[in-house]
Amino acid sequence: MIDTGGTLVKAVNLLRTNGAGQVYACATHGVFSANAAERLNDCETLEEVVVTDSLPQDDNQSRCGKLVVLTLASLLAETIWRLHHEKSLNYLFTKERLQTYTGSKIPF
Asked: How far apart are the C-alpha atoms of 27 and 77, rounded to whole Å?
């Protein structure tokens, strides 16, 4: 979960101090309260922040250009279908499926 973004920015800065050139962040829930969007935008080493749409993200996307929002709808629908039909859930978490699903620049 990312709330104010303060802890994330501190972690990114520590990674930069220790040699990281680029950092990608992921969280399930993007709360983005206070001035989180500005903090993330101002953090030069942070390339991208990926969150799900477990919380509405339209306003946050308009304020933070680094924000990528992944919808949970198809994942939840496919999970329900697979459970109902007694199919394996393992496929949902394969490298091929994740790269297709995310559309992110994150190198899996």
From this structure: 21
Task: Give the containing element (helix H, strand E) for 41.
Answer: helix 36-42
* 3-state SS record for 43-94: CCCEEEEEEECCCCCHHHHHHCCCEEEECCHHHHHHHHHHHHCCCCCHHHHC
* 3-class DSSP state of 6: helix
Q: CB–CB of 104/50 below 8 Å? A: yes
Q: Is 40 exposed, middle or buried (0-12, 13-18, 19+ CB in 10 A)?
A: buried
The one-digit pLDDT tens for each residue of the chain (108 residues) are 999 999 999 999 999 999 999 999 999 999 999 999 999 999 999 999 999 999 999 999 999 999 999 998 888 998 999 999 999 999 888 877 776 666 655 555
